[in-house]
Structures are given as structure tokens and as C-alpha cells.
């Protein structure tokens, strides 16, 4: 029993590490979410509500569809095998989609409860949206959208099946139900991020940015910038004792080849993705790591020494 428990526990921990490891494409694909994550409470409430509704809808539709196909399989297969395969495919994707959504709800709730510091909370949420599990959830969502759209444009039929009279009616209702679900999702997004912003979140929006407390574009262009290559990555980001490279402390993503980085003048070890630090310094003069002010004088001083 103990051996079984150890095996299960080690596999679970391995899956957990993989699920919340940073996906290589996470930084480029989900950086637009950063503006939403700054509205921390609203973002957490949106994820809990949206994904909970999605899980309920997916399970209800997938299980009812699978039961319908199972109970009339030979009749609807002989009537339209292509649509039958499509139903099985869509139902399988819906069921698979509930797993990453459930994990993301659990992780979002934990981040909201155990991270009272707003900066740490934002960084944890940012790391979550760049993880493998978030990427898989997005891929499954796009797969559903493509499947429904392809069926609606290429395979949709309005005929009848003598062996299963309500077959095409049920299929069309399933398709229209999905697009109705999308409309509800957009409405939910609108009400959360347009009407659900609290006063603390408003202070973080672009509208209320203090332009006196930011690095000007001309100073920003003076900051040392490099493109990571095989030749220079060891100079700027050497491997640590665990054979891993440092991560950008803003987005919590690892540095990869062909990415642009900036090295701040306060310390040559304070290295960030160019897009991350540019966005940060557009609202704050201080280094995210040591809080020293970044100015033209500090850049010139660093070049002298």
C-alpha cells in the first residue's frame, strides 16, 4: 500500500509541476491579460463565475449528447456517420475541457485567499495565465470554436432522418446553444470588467496613470537592450545550481532565445523581458526588484563605471 501511495504521490506532483510550469508560448500569447489581471478582485471573480458556468454547461451538454448517441447509435450512424463522429468529438472535447477549468478555478481561489499582498497576487495570477494548464484550456476552447464553426458552415443539415426523426433538430440546437453560450460569455466579460471595477482597481488603470512617476520614452531608449542568442545567453543568464535560468520577475516566464531583454542600470543582474519592463517603467520609475529609481543620470553613471 505504501509503495502504491508513493507512486501515486510522485506522479501527482510531477503532473502538478508540469501543469503550472510556464509554457514557452505563454508570454507571447497571453500578455494582453496583464491589463485584466491588474483588476485582481474582478479577474478572480470573473474566472470563478465564467469557468464554473462553463463546466456546468459542458458536462450537461456533453453527457446528454453522449447518452443520445449511445441510445441511438446504429440508427443515426446509418443516417449520417459524419455528424455522428462530430458529435462524439465535440462531446469528448467538452468533457476534457472541464479538467483544466476546474484546476484553474481551484488555483485562482487559492491565490486570492493566500496572497494578501496585491503585487504578489498579481504576479501569481500572471504566472497562472502563462502556465501549461492555461494554454491547454485555451487550445481546447479554440478547438471547440473551430469544430462548431466548421460544422455550421460546411456540414449543417436541415433534413430529417427516418430512423431518428429529431436527430438534426437536436444537432442544430446544440450548435445554436454553443453560439448563445459565447454571447452570454461576452456579456459576462463586459459586466465584470466594465461595471465590476472597484476603487482600488481604478487606481491601476491607464486613465489614472501618474505620468510624473514614469520613465520617459527617451530615457527608456537609453537602457541597455540585447537580443538573446546562443552566443550571449550564458553571459547574461548563466545556469544556476539547479541547471535552470532565472525568470523575468514581472511575468514569471523563463528567458528564451531570440527574446529581447533589458538590463537595468541599478544592477546588471536585474534583467527583464523588454516588453515587460517597458510596460512597468511606463507607469513606475522604480526597478521592480530593488526599487531604485531609473533615470538618465543613473544610466550615464552605470556606463561610466
Strand content: under 5%
Number of strands: 3
- What do the pLDDT scores average to? 80
How many domains make up the 3D coordinates? 2
| Coarse morphology | elongated
Give me the secondary-structure category.
mainly alpha
Strand arrangement, major sheet: 1-2-3
Figure out the total of helices: 14
Unreliable parts: 199-209
Terminal CA distance reads 63 Å
Q: H/E element string?
A: HHHHHHHHHHHEHEEHH
Rg measurement, Å:
25 Å
Helix share bin: 55-70%
Q: Mind summarizing the main beta sheet?
A: 3 strands, antiparallel
Describe the structure.
A three-stranded antiparallel β-sheet has the order 1-2-3. The protein has 305 residues and is mainly alpha-helical. The protein is elongated. Helix 4 packs antiparallel against helix 9 and helix 5 (73-79) crosses helix 6. The longest helix is centred in the first third of the chain and has 34 residues, at 81-114. It has helices at residues 2-19, 26-29, 34-37, 40-71, 73-79, 81-114, 118-128, 132-155, 167-195, 199-202, 217-220, 233-236, 274-281, 296-304; strands spanning 224-227, 260-263, 271-273. The chain has two domains: 2-202, no CATH class; 209-304, Zinc/RING finger domain, C3HC4 (zinc finger) (Herpes Virus-1), CATH 3.30.40. The model is unreliable at 199-209 (pLDDT under 50).
Short description:
The protein is mainly alpha-helical and 305 residues long. The chain has helices at residues 2-19, 26-29, 34-37, 40-71, 73-79, 81-114, 118-128, 132-155, 167-195, 199-202, 217-220, 233-236, 274-281, 296-304, and strands at residues 224-227, 260-263, 271-273.
